[in-house]
Structures are given as C-alpha cells and as structure tokens.
Write a structure and sequence with these properties.
mainly beta, Immunoglobulin-like, elongated, Ig_E-set, EC 2.3.2.13, metal ion binding, protein-glutamine gamma-glutamyltransferase activity, calcium
Length: about 650
C-alpha cells in the first residue's frame, strides 16, 4: 500500500519519478511513471517577427505570420509536459479552404516523430524542454499560396485530440523568389528588391518621340492589401489547386483584374465621361482600388485604362510574391482579326475609313511581365512572361492575355501557350493600308514593317529612368534573325503581304511644329520626285485628335491638293514654285507685301496685296530657270503692320544639265 508521503522526486531524461515510504516500515521502493496521462497542448507560438525578417515579409502591415514557400520557418508548441518523440505521437496540421483534403493539397500533416512520408512539407524538432518544443517547418516549394490555419493533434491508439481553431496561429504562404526550388526563383538580389519588394514605381506613357511618365504607388504592403488580393482569387472562384502554379494563378488573375465577364476589379472607360466614377488619370496607386473592391464585396471599381490595369495587376502579383514589372509598348497594335497583321482601310480621299477598319494602333499600351520558370514549354522560353489584364480580346472565353514567353515572341515561336500570336502582333505586325473605292472594292496601296513596336520600355532597376528592352521582344529589322522570326510566324498563320506595287518615285515627308494647347499647329508636307518625268500627285491630309488607343476623337482639318512635280531639278529646266498664305489670324490684313528670292535661282520679286481678308488665302506662282548646279534655297517673307516675321524656305538641289538622262 502506498503512503501519501512523498520523500523526493527527480527528473531523469525528461521522465519524472517518485519514491514512496511504506507505512509498515518495510522499505519498499516503487517507481511510478507519472506521464501515463495524455500529453496536451497549452499554446502555439508562430514567432511572427523573427520569421518575417527571414522571409522578407516584414514590410507587410499585417499582424499574422507571413512566410514564403520552400523556406523554413519556426514555431513553438507548449505542452502540458515535456514532449517525448519516443512515446508521444504529435502531428501539426495546416489547412486551407472550406473542405481540406490531403489529396487536393489543402490539408497538410507533418509529424514531430520524424516521419516525413506524410507530406512533402518537412518538419524537424529543434529543441524540446520542459516548457516548449521548438519546431522548424518547410512548406513544399510548389504548395498552394494563401491563408492557412494551424492545428496540433495528439494521437493515441484510441483517439485524436486536436487543438481548436485559433486565428492567431493562422499564417500566409506566398511565392518565394529567394528559394531556388520555387518556380519564381530570381537569383539577382537587386532585381528581387525591385520586382518584389519595391512598393512604388514609374509607368511610362506619351508617344514614341516624346516619352513621358507618371509615378505609381503599388502599395502591396499596406494594411488589408494582401487580404484584398486573396479576395480577388476567392471572388473569381479560382480553384485552390491552381494557386500553387504561378502560370495558372496569373492567367486567372489577368481575367479578374478587369470587370469583363466576371465582375473583376476594374471597369474600363475610354470615353471622356467619368462622372459616376474616378477618371483613370486621377488614380495615384493600386491600394485604393483593391481595398475598395474587397470592402464592397466584389463591386467593380470605376474606372481604368491600360496603365491602371497594369499598375493594379503589378500590385496583385508582387503582393503574392511574384516578381513583376510594368511594360510600355509604343505604337502598340491591336489585331482584331487574328491574322498577325494590322490592317488600315482608307477611303477614296485617303482618310481612314473607321467603319471598315477594325484594327488599331495605340500610341502606347501597358501590360505586365512576370518572371517564372515554365514547366509546360521548353526551358529556353522560361524567364519573363507577358500577362495583360486590359480587356482587349477574349482567350478561352475570358478577357485575359498570357502568360506568354517574351523570348518565344522574339523568335516567332507562336505555338506555345498562352496568346502568343496576339502579343506578337502588338509588337511586330506589319501595317497594311487598303484603299476602298465607292463600290466597296479594296486594294493594297502601302505597307509598313517598322511602325509597330518601335520602343518597349520599363522602369530601370534601382532608378526612375526608362530601360529600353525592345531587343527582348524583337531582332533588328531586316537582320537574319528577324527574317527567321518572320518565317516562324508565317508558319503559325501570319499572313504577310508581299508587295508587287509599281516602283515608287515620289517621296513624301510630313513634319509639324511643337503642339501647344490653344495655339495653331503648323504642318509641312515635303514632296520629292525621284523621276525625270512629270508627276501629278494628289495629296490628302487629315488632321484629327485621337485617343491614345488610336480611336478618333474628332477630325478638325482635311486638305486635298493636286501638285505637279517636274522631274529632277536641273540647270536649264523650268521650275515652278508656289507661295501660299492663309489668313487665320481672325481679322483682315491690310497693305501686305510678299517677297521671294533665291540666290542663283530667282532675283528678288515682290507682290502687293491691299487686303487679305480674315479666313481667305492668297497664292503666288512664279517660274524660273536655274543657271547653276548645287544646293540652293528659296526664301519667302510676308510683311504688314499687323504681323511681322512670317517666313518660309524651300531647299532645292539643282543637278547639272542632262544629269537625269541615261
């Protein structure tokens, strides 16, 4: 019989023993193993601060633990007594979604007893003391990303005891560009700092010969943004199984950032009426957009255009751990017909026939690139992938685009998923001009193989300057590599027009002065005949205001004129010159003098006008016969009391006599 008197106790090898004194004075020693009772869990610690620094997630304004897959993190478990790997069976369970399943990868079980066969996640016990057992957990490098719940389960032959749900032990798992085993691994630390951790940026816009930019706050670390990004996936019903694959996730995400089809984040608006929303040009960043969308339960935000879509998608991607950047393509084609060429239809007068032209060329267009390893295509085509959330064309039934390999676009290898032909046309399609007569018949009058994709830029690493990445997308025009690219593209359905036009012996060049709001625009058309024969040229000039997408806003000036070109200007051949002036001042001009002369061409001549009424024009045609070869210059000036310093000039190259005759 045991006495209630405890003489001593001691702890040996984490096991507690007691020695009892028998009341009959018979010294009987019994050793009782007090740990026959079930071990229980008192507390679970996630060591948020320590883990966030190690996982490059300490910038997130979120109290929960945030880790990156494929990288070890630390957690602590307080038991009711010391944990014994030999005698206690304890598992940690991580769950995501409403119906966790080990088969679907939404229920992950790791054992503290050294059994690694239960999951492709890894665990190891770092330290076990009386108060706490410290455990290291390594999520699989291809695991689902999102918000997981944590449970600790004690297992006996007859029962399982699982801890209750505790939101304080919930944690987020993100993609990991720092882990070589992750498909989004990027080995350059400066690039990781730029494309994952930088929460501000520059988005380039404007036109190809006048590149401009605007700042953009990505704000991926702001409070609530991470949950908003996950809400986008949930609201879009993106299967959890897709969320372990970067390619599948970003393809679904490109559809969800626009509101077409699925009530996604942003409503597009390319009109001038933004009265029931926010003008695209007014946004300063993405956080406001994403937080509004999530807080209102999936009500699309008004309004977006391409740079807003790209900026918001960039936040979404970086927030989830994907290396991403915003790209601007100047003279970006939109191929509506899928024939890999951009077709412009002109009417009889040479003006764009908007009714029959379905393709367009944007001054600039913004999309995103994501850096990842593609397991579904040859390894050479991994790296930067184009993804575009601006709703232009449907892909597999949804308005989305990509991912498609930048390198594959450059090589014309358009058979690899996804949407490579559309992106190729944006940067490298031929522009084909058709002329349509009044009977509806069309003929090809011109082609341009260099206009589309003239410049492609992104923000430089570590600075706000533009990084020209055009060579990532296309080889130099006409190079052997470019010719091979076009052959590859033709084999995938690119319909290239091989012109069989008459030789062109008249060159045309148009130039305009700097455009300032509220002031007149000066446009000069230069015609040069390369023939010795007479040429009659009909010139049609249309001046219109366009949206940056190429859509016409208004036509404010049309001009048609037939001009006669003699052949090559040479000694002894008569040349006609026309000086014209239109009074757009808004009032009559009185006592006007026109002067014209050209050294070695034409002696000083003058013409007087008593009045040039407002809105009227004058034309002065003069002929002369050059006597000397060489580069000459004709100068004409108009003068009156109301306006001064109105001058123009014409450069003429005079050839020796009979120079144009073979």
């Amino acid at each position: 019989m045991k006495s209630g008197l405890c003489l001593w106790h001691s702890t040996v090898h984490h096991q507690l023993y007691r020695l009892y004194y028998c009341e009959s004075n018979c010294l009987t020693i019994t050793i009782e193993y007090l740990f026959g009772n079930l071990i229980s869990v008192k507390n679970v610690k996630m060591y948020e601060d320590r883990n966030k620094v190690a996982h490059h997630t300490d910038k997130y304004k979120n109290s929960s633990l945030i880790v990156r897959r494929g990288q070890e993190f630390i957690m602590g478990i307080e038991f009711s007594r010391p944990f014994s790997p030999q005698k206690d069976s304890v598992n940690i369970e991580f769950m995501i979604g409403s119906n966790p399943s080990s088969v679907q990868g939404t229920l992950i079980t790791v054992s503290l007893n050294g059994d690694s066969k239960m999951s492709n996640w890894k665990s190891r016990v770092l330290d076990s003391s009386w108060t706490e057992t410290t455990v290291a957990i390594t999520p699989a490098s291809d695991c689902i990303i999102g918000l997981f719940s944590t449970f600790v389960t004690v297992v006996t032959p007859t029962m399982k005891q699982r801890t209750k749900r505790n939101p304080k032990t919930d944690f987020y798992i993100l993609f990991n560009p720092w882990a070589s085993s992750d498909e989004v691994y990027m080995d350059n630390e400066n690039e990781r700092a730029e494309y994952v951790l930088n929460d501000t940026g520059i988005i380039f816009n404007g036109v190809v010969d006048n590149v401009s930019s605007r700042p953009w706050n990505y704000g991926q670390f702001k409070p609530g943004v991470l949950d908003a990004c996950l809400f986008v996936l949930d609201f879009g019903k993106v299967p959890l199984q897709f969320r372990g694959s970067a390619a599948k996730l970003i393809r679904q995400g490109s559809a969800m950032i626009n509101s077409q089809d699925d009530d996604g984040v942003l409503v597009g608006n390319w009109s001038e009426n933004f009265s029931n929303g926010t003008a695209p040009s007014a946004w300063t960043g993405s956080a406001e957009i994403l937080l509004s969308y999530a807080s209102k339960g999936g009500v699309p935000v008004k309004f977006g255009q391409c740079w807003v879509y790209a900026g918001t998608f960039n936040t979404f991607l970086r927030c989830l751990g994907l290396p991403a950047r915003v790209i601007t393509n100047y003279c970006s084609a939109h191929d509506n017909m899928g024939n890999l060429k951009t077709e412009i239809v002109l009417d009889e007068d040479g003006r764009m026939d908007t009714e029959h032209t379905t393709d367009s060329i944007w001054n600039f267009h913004c999309w995103n690139e994501v850096f990842l390893k593609r397991s579904d295509i040859p390894p050479i085509y991994s790296g930067w992938q184009v993804v575009d959330s601006t709703p232009q064309e449907t892909s597999d039934g949804y308005y989305r685009c990509g991912p498609t390999s930048v390198r594959a676009i450059k090589d014309g290898m358009l058979g690899y998923q996804f949407d490579a032909p559309f992106v190729f046309a944006e940067v490298n399609s031929d522009v084909v001009f058709h002329k349509r007569d009044k009977y509806g018949n069309t003929r090809i009058v011109s082609t341009n193989t260099t206009y589309v994709g003239q410049l492609i830029v992104t923000k430089s690493v570590g600075s706000s300057t533009a990084d020209d990445i055009t060579e990532n997308y296309k080889y130099p025009e006409g190079s052997p590599e470019d010719q091979l690219t076009m052959k590859h593209a033709e084999s995938r359905g690119m319909d290239r027009y091989q012109p069989s036009l008459l030789a062109i012996d008249v060159q045309l060049q148009v130039s305009a002065n700097q455009i300032n709001q509220g002031r007149d625009i000066g446009v000069t058309v230069y015609l040069t005949s390369l023939s010795t024969a007479h040429r009659s040229v009909k010139v049609s000039l249309t001046c219109k205001a366009d949206y940056y997408t190429g859509a016409t806003r208004s036509i404010f000036k049309t001009f048609t004129k037939t001009m006669n070109l003699p052949g090559t200007s040479e000694v002894g051949t008569d040349i006609f010159v026309t000086v014209s002036f239109s009074n757009t001042i808004g009032y009559d001009l009185n006592n006007v003098t026109l002067r014209m002369e050209g050294s070695g061409l034409l002696p000083l001549k003058t013409k007087e006008y008593s009045q040039i009424a407002s809105g009227s024009s004058v034309k002065w045609i003069e002929s002369f016969t050059p006597q000397y070869p060489g580069k000459k210059k004709l100068v004409a000036c108009l003068d009156c009391a109301a306006i001064r310093n109105v001058c123009g000039q014409l450069d003429i190259d005079i050839n020796p006599k009979n120079a144009g005759i073979n």
